[in-house]
Amino acid sequence: MSGASPIDVGTRKQLFADDHIIGERQNVFRTLNQPTKYHDNPIIELAPPQQVGGDEHVIVMGTVMYDEDERIFKMWYECADYPWSFNVIAYATSVDGIHWERPNLGIMEFRGSRENNYVFHRGKRNVTAGIYKDPTAEEGSRRYKMIYNCGDGVGVAFSPDGLRWTPEPDVRVAKISDSPHSVMWEPRLGRYVAHSRHWEQMEFADGYGYGGPRGLGTRVVLQSESEDFISWTPYGIIMAPDDEDPPWTRQFYNMEWMPYEDVYFGFIAAYHVLPGMEEKITTGPPWMDTIDIQLSFSRDNRTWMRAGDRQTFIPTGPDEYDKGMVYIFQHPLVVGDEIRFYYAGFSGLHWATRRAEPQGGVVCMATLRLDGFVSMDAGEGALTTKALTMAGGRLVINADASLGSIAVEILDEEGRAIPGFSRAEADAFDGDSLRHTVTWSGSGDVSSLQGRPVVVQFHMDRTKLYSFVFAE
Q: 163, 180, 214, 248 - which has most CB atoms within 10 Å?
């Protein structure tokens, strides 16, 4: 066993996106798990359907939250006409997050009428807003906060109710961006954190450089930070393609993100196009000019890494409504025993409007089991942690062993089984549970091990292990 100092996991849930707590693996493999798309997608679709060149609206991006105070789901979705000459933010509510109402608010005039659910519009083209109800703000005019594309950078706006917005004309979060934005208060850093798109001139070892449209460079993700939502400082580029990405996957449109337990997951909108073909595409492979989602991971909300071996987390298609592009809404939500991903699905491709092709644009949903981002899978194998110290009274696992079984052994730092927690005394689990308490000879009490360095060994037979925690 390693002589390194034990990792204090306390009563915090441990996930497997990286090797932070993993010591050894024997025939155990890390697996990226894709969310399941809702069977009745799309959940919001505007009518009448948009025509090529028409002024009917489609949905292009948005924000979803659950308001704990009002006990309803709230959605702000951006909709656009075909040439993207008039983009506006609309508002919807839901009791269950699946069936949505679009209230007649009477706030903003559109085509001579106020009978609509529109709440924000700033000039021509897109606003690409990220909206956030600030739990740290007192009741007042700045309870709701927004960052959006204001034409010459990323601006901010405030609202007392999420409906009536006041822009701050002199504030800029970042100098450039025209893609979906994401923002929230980060209590660990003690500041607001915003993600926006940036352009970077990059060189790749294989020689496939990317000038992008008009030679702007490669699309990357920029993080900006602020203590008051007014004065913003660029932290730097936190996510960019590299030499391990194939030439057709070296454009990151944006990265939505969410805190999850004591870590963070990010959702990269990966744009697929060959260098030099962005605005010249006619025909090509089925992935050409599409956007899908890859997974990323961070432990400190500043240093990000790719997760799941750069595989696709939420793919396009196979249905018509999202066969062209997928954009995650800000922010995915934990609802009961599932994680919900709301997203804009497009039937058309990225440059559809430049080629007079149908665009599409609807709101969709996909779900994932709790902790289900990445699992450790085995036909028959063993996963051994590094030395840990904990503060819990029982060991709880999230695992699917319905086709086999999983048994847990707890060792000391020297690799010896601790009496009472050996594999021979372990009660094997052969079910599928989000919260199974591990037992040995019928007892799940591990409180005698609190504060003592221990090593946990999972003996897996046809098992998917998603997480474990020493619960209080």
A: 180
